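Fold this sequence, please.
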Amino acid sequence: MTKEEFWHLIDEMRAACGTDMAKEEHWIVERLKTMGSEQIIGFQCIFLSYYDAADKYGLWSAASVVAGECSDDGFMDFRSWLIARGEKNYYDVLKDPDQLSHIKMDEYCFFERMYSVGYRAYEQATKKKPYDICPDEMVKRYSAEVTKDIVYHPLIEYPMDLKETSVAFPLICRKHNVKEWPEYNSGRTSWNLNNPRIKELWEQGKREIKKQKNRNESVR
């Protein structure tokens, strides 16, 4: 399966089901079952490639605004939801998470079961257990091809508190009135700063976002 075929299936799913996630899940599983095991495996590997490519702390910060809160598991489900919203939305949001302000959210932006549709389609189609159909080395091979066109926002690597997120992604923060949230002025963070990598990115992000704030103020 190619990335073009992958996104075409997502478009077909959205056209058939709208934003009804239960219908989307059922539709895509049934559609994949008609395509044969190799195509199902290809679909799941491509999905995992895009899913991993969206695993960015800055996007997690943005997701926490639009969702109200976003746990570890919640961010996993958010990334599945974002892929299910189609190619343009996916690429637009990674380039600028503020584009989330233009996507219809309904009341829920978590799609847990989208992650496993390929596995379930494979098991139902072949009557075999699907656990090893997408080994890491296969996903890496797919990733090199399908993600090469992604353009990331310059601040997407950094974990942020609400004040920093409002500088980096002002549209979603205004839309969701984050300045009225108790956490905005609390000075607390939910990030695990005992993790050396998160702490390093946190501190680096503060410097980069301060530069962005100064640039914003200089053009006013």
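Residues 196-218 form the longest helix (23 residues). The chain has a mean pLDDT of 93.
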